[in-house]
């Protein structure tokens, strides 16, 4: 069976893996992104990762999943707001790895993987939403990934859910990702901590070495009222966006990925209730889209990038 290298470039970390064409991971590597260093330094690290993963292996191609709009023909990342890349010729920087590198949006990659070997396997329509530094999206309709005119479609995180709301890194206001990404949850957790010095969130953050996307959920489990409010508010905003997606695409499956999705039913149960209450004609609908977590977890991005490398270029 052929082997490919899949790279998932995130705002926080870079994941890489050697993936067999059936989706099986054979080797992996990770390193921090530290995007403030600029694209060239980050791309150097990606190149080093590709070389390490490819050493001594027969690799048929490399897929790079990027958090933004990519132009696979030109080999450029056109615009990625959360890492600050604009028209960056990443293929040229990676040329000396000796591998041909294909580019795909990170969440589109996750959707490809989930549709092929994960939560949406066997379905004809699915939406994958990744909750990380930003919110990513991949839409599969009638078995095909929705690309739009130039491949820039499915920027689900940048649908506006609050007119004139909070500022997004993309320059618009009120984008879904400013309310429902992991970054947004962390920001709200920190704000709740500042407002409630007696909250259990302080102890939890201390014990875990800082605030992350799990802190508020841990606080809720400990019965802390401030944490419970943060989680409820987070799920409310997440639910508004998911309900919009249900009303637009009505897919068979909506799969959530990214670290926050690891909360499983703690997140999904209240989320499903939120979404159903906002679904168009909900009371009369016999079947609702299934809202589940990505079964490939945080591997979806690397697997999908590798599977993309196996596809014929457009
Ligand atoms: C970007 C998307 C990306 C997502 C997750 C968003 O801010 O616009 O292209 O898929 O973050 O990384």
From TrEMBL:
Species, as recorded: Vescimonas fastidiosa
Similarity annotation: Belongs to the ROK (NagC/XylR) family.
Keywords associated with the record: Plasmid
Protein name: Glucokinase
Pfam families in the record: ROK
Gene3D superfamilies: 3.30.420.40
PANTHER family: BIFUNCTIONAL UDP-N-ACETYLGLUCOSAMINE 2-EPIMERASE_N-ACETYLMANNOSAMINE KINASE, ROK (REPRESSOR, ORF, KINASE) FAMILY
Coiled-coil annotated residue ranges, if any: none
């Amino acid at each position: 069976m052929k082997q490919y290298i899949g790279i998932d470039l995130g705002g926080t970390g870079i994941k890489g893996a050697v993936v067999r064409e059936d989706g099986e991971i054979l080797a992996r590597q990770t390193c921090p992104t530290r995007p403030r260093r600029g694209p060239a330094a980050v791309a150097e690290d990606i190149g080093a990762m590709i070389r390490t993963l490819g050493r001594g292996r027969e690799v048929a191609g490399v897929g790079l999943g990027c958090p933004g709009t990519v132009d696979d023909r030109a080999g450029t990342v056109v615009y990625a707001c959360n890492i600050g890349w604009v028209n960056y010729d990443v293929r040229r920087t990676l040329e000396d790895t000796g591998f041909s590198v294909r580019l795909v949006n990170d969440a589109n990659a996750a959707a490809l993987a989930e549709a092929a070997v994960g939560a949406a396997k066997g379905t004809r329509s699915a939406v994958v939403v990744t909750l990380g530094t930003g919110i990513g999206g991949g839409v599969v309709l009638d078995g095909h990934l929705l690309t739009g005119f130039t491949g820039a479609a499915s920027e689900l995180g940048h649908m506006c859910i609050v007119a004139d709301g909070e500022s997004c890194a993309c320059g618009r206001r009120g984008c879904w990702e400013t309310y429902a990404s992991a970054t947004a949850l962390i920001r709200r957790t920190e704000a709740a901590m500042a407002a409630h010095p007696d909250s259990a969130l302080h102890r939890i953050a201390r014990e875990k070495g800082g605030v992350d996307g799990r802190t508020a959920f841990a606080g809720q489990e400990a019965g802390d009222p401030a944490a419970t409010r943060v989680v409820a508010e987070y799920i409310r905003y997440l639910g508004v966006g998911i309900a919009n997606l249900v009303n637009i695409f009505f897919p068979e499956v909506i799969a959530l990925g990214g670290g926050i999705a690891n909360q499983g039913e703690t997140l999904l149960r209240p989320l499903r209730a939120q979404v159903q209450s906002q679904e168009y004609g909900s009371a009369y609908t016999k079947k609702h889209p299934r809202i589940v977590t990505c079964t490939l977890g945080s591997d979806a991005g690397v697997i999908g990038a590798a599977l993309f490398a196996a596809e014929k270029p457009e």
